[in-house]
Specification:
Helices cover about 45% and strands about 15% of the residues. By secondary structure, it is of the alpha/beta class. Helix 1 (about 45-60) links the parallel strand 3 (about 25-30) and strand 4. It is globular. It binds zinc ion.
Amino acid sequence: MSLYVYSTLSRCKQPFHKRPGETVTMYVCGPTVYKPSHIGHMVGPVIFDTVKRYLSWLGYRVTWVVNITDVDDKLIERARELGTTVGALAREMTQDYFRCLQALNVTGIDHFPRATEYVPFMVEIIQQLEAQGYAYRADGDVYFDISRDPDYGKLCHRDAEQMAAGARLEINPKKRNPGDFALWKAARPDEPPEVRFDSPFGPGRPGWHIECSAMSLRLLGAPIDIHGGGLDLQFPHHENELAQSECYTGTEFVKIWMHNGLLKLRDKDGHEAKMAGSLGNVLNVVDALRHLSGDALRFFILKTHYRTPIDLGIWDWHNPATPLPQGLVEARKAHENFVRFAERVRAVLGIPFDQLPAPQRADEARSLTHPEHQAAFQRFREYMDDDFNTGGAVGVLFELVHHLNRLADQGHLDDAATADTALLQTFREGVVLVRELANILGLTFQGLTTSWSGDHHLVAQLLQLLIELRGQLRDTAKTAPKEAPLRTSLFQLADRIRARLHELGIALEDRPTGTTWRIIH
Ligand SMILES: [Zn+2]
């Protein structure tokens, strides 16, 4: 079996160019952190987290970078509206983004570079582009001259005339060609000093496209194996990123360009609608998670093939009785099958589903005794090998769960006294397989409520408070001088919180996105 991946550049499914055991680099364009994340912001992270999980399971070593755009027009404007600083707003919204990723079990991101930390390298790239004749200065700005790059337009497969037609909407007399784009934007007097950086071109800040070129080249080098992002980023963002990166390095920038489909929504009359602040129908992740679990939301995103639009269905968003679009309500209902299955597994086998040990790596020699399990395993791999068809893979999981439920009924497995031991063995094999495949998709089978007794919401909030306090202790300790006795005691205090929680059956896990907790017994 071999993996095929569709690339926007070649416009075909191509055999994956590396072998298991090798390192794979992946870069996905991240958010501009000026507002809380809405559910559309989670589509890319969930898809590429699943891509990484599958590649890792196959034996690849994947390094994944998602950038944070923390300097931008929208950020400056929003900070002004709120009467806060760009820095403070960006920090707060980055935390919101991290919390959303945690809730959807997106755990694979290795680096979150912030644009403001890479400005000197961006300046270096722009200088070189200028020296090579690809860029020119105009009134404190620096632009990329698309007419100097014969390859410009190769990603989106548009010709110069089509691109110029789009660019003409925004007339800028400083540009040589309508399609030229800003590499550097001169500082404006009405902007706060915190977004002003010194450069050989004068004070200003980088354009959005150059940020991604700098962060991806610095952290991953060229060529990047997989570059991902939403379909809306294909043009102009990725086209521009590609042009400036290849002109700068003189080598291929990206092996595979993957673009995911966007969310689609209809209003109560069935007409297609945009999700927009002005319409009042932006569904933030934090609000959605009041009505369905993070796992159900992840399931919703994965049940469609990533290259097609994800249909949220009809939504009467002004009606408080319908807090979710129809598509999410249906996904929550379907996901209940998984939640009930996990509860049954716990009752029959005595182990919580998400703690079942299951293989972490593909094993060619592995054989499953039950033919239905073997066939499901085979089909799952075929779907995933075919350009990460998670929709098909989720379908296999459904069938497998259905089959195991029937098996449990047949063998009276819910009652230990009458359980058929041979069928129990088969059931166990199937459950381990479900766990293995669910883990590849990042699904935990957790519903909105857990088996935790008492007020779950309050407990979650209290734990969040403890996690925050522990984080602050550790941050303060890190900045204290090395020999200071205070430093040691702060670390000890932070460790004590973790140890005491562990005794109470709660494990804390530190990840790049922050600390999460889970119940261990
Ligand atoms: Zn980008």
